[in-house]
């Protein structure tokens, strides 16, 4: 059946089938889910439709708290993202915050190439800040790999930003276990890669960032 502009019956039918299959595989799933959500993970990822958070890590609804925006940006002025983080950390008591970028990200590409893409240009200025910060090194990366290099740099910077938020800093100060991670997803192979920026305390942030940055630069270094 072809979905018209005004009718989305395909999606509603898909939902009914999914709900029935989920309940058949795990009887009582939805009634239990209704009572509480106790995710251990907060996923901060890109809004790209090719990067579905739960599916990538094979987790059911209720297991992963998710926030998504263009180019997986974490900035201190974004009250939307900060509110999600605070609810996840203070109320849901998540133990892990994972900032996840992906290869060939359109937002990152636009930031790298100064593309005119409308209102979102103002948002990806945050990614352009990352580009400017690492411009000398990015110039040494092969042009064909430069977008992906900036994608990974952007994950490092946004993960570091997450560590510096008042939400995470306050959690660490009161002894709450919260670990921040930075990952990248390969659209070409469906695999997630840990970029090694992993910090569970304020003292671990800078060493983790330096370690991860060295690994990114080594991976994208010109062939000898």
Automatic annotation (TrEMBL):
Enzyme kind, highest EC tier: lyase
EC number annotated for this UniProt entry: 4.2.1.1
Q: State which residue ranges cross the membrane.
A: none
Q: Which co-factors does it depend on?
A: Zn(2+)
Alphabetical UniProt keywords: Lyase, Metal-binding, Zinc
Is Cell cycle given among the entry's keywords? no
A matching Pfam family: Pro_CA
State the protein's purpose.
Answer: Reversible hydration of carbon dioxide.
* Family, similarity comment: Belongs to the beta-class carbonic anhydrase family.
Q: What is this protein called?
A: Carbonic anhydrase
Which gene holds the coding sequence for this protein? can
């Amino acid at each position: 059946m072809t979905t018209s502009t005004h009718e989305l019956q395909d999606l509603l039918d898909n939902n009914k089938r999914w709900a029935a299959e989920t309940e058949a595989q795990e009887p009582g799933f939805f009634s239990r889910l209704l009572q509480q959500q106790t995710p251990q993970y907060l996923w901060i990822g890109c809004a790209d439709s090719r990067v579905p958070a739960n599916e990538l890590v094979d987790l059911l609804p209720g297991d992963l708290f998710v926030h998504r925006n263009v180019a997986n940006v974490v900035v201190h002025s974004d009250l939307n993202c900060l509110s999600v983080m605070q609810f996840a950390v203070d109320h849901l008591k998540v133990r892990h915050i994972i900032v996840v970028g992906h290869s060939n990200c359109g937002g990152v590409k636009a930031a790298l190439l100064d593309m005119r893409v409308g209102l979102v240009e103002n948002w990806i200025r945050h990614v352009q800040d990352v580009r400017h910060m690492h411009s000398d090194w990015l110039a040494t990366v092969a042009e064909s790999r430069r977008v992906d290099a900036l994608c990974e740099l952007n994950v490092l910077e946004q993960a570091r930003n997450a560590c510096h938020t008042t939400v995470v800093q306050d959690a660490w100060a009161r002894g709450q276990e919260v670990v921040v991670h930075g990952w990248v997803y390969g659209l070409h192979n469906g695999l997630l890669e840990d970029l090694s920026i992993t910090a569970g305390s304020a003292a671990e942030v800078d060493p983790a960032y330096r370690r991860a940055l060295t690994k990114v630069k080594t991976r994208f270094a010109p062939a000898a």
